[in-house]
Design a protein that fits this description.
A motif (HXTX 1) lies at residues 37-40. By secondary structure, the chain is of the alpha+beta class. Helices cover 23% and strands 30% of the residues. The protein has four helices and ten strands. A hairpin with a 6-residue loop joins strand 5 (70-76) and strand 6.
Length: 197
Amino acid sequence: MPRLFIALEIPHDAALSLSLLRGGLPGARWIDTENYHLTLRFVGDVEGPIAADLATALHGIRRREFALALAGVGAFGNRKPRAVWAGVSASPDLHALQGEVDRACRRVGLPGDARKFTPHVTLARLRQPRVDEVARYLAGHGDFRTQAFTVDNFVLMSSRESVGGGPYIVEEDYGLLPARRGETPAEGAVRERRPAH
C-alpha cells in the first residue's frame, strides 16, 4: 500500500539553490535534488477507496497561483537534531492552500493533523549528529534565500518504504487558478515549466 502525501514540487532553479547547501555535516544523509518537496499534508497509508476519494476531493480546491521563496535553514530536534531543512518566507497564500488541503482530507474521513504546519523542505536526515556541528552549519547558512517562484500547482504523491525518503511518484497533479488579470503572483517571481508526469 503506498504512503500518500500532498506537496509542492520544488522548481529546478530553487532545487539547484538548495543543493548548494549540501555538505558540511558529518553523517548527514542528503536528500536527492529530484526528491525535494514541501509537504502540505502527510496522509500516510490508506486504502484504495479513501485514496480515490481524496484524489477527487483535492480537485475541488480553487485557489489562485502565488509566489513563494525559500529562506533560512533550521533543524528538527533541539537536543538531538534529526533533520535539517530550508524554511519558507512568510506566505499567507501557502497557509491558505494548506488549510484547504487539510479540510479536503477531513471531508474524506482522514483525521486532522495534530502537528502545527511548519512549511519546510527537508535537506538531510541526521545520524548521531553533534549539536555543535549542526549549530555551526545552521549559523553558516542562515542567510539562505531563493528567488521567488510561482506556485501554480500542487501534487498528490506516494512513496514506498526506503531509507531516507523517495523515490516519490506523482499520483495526481492539481493546477491552481491563474492570477487575476492585471495581477502577478509577485514582482520578479520565476515561472518554470515542469516536465509532464
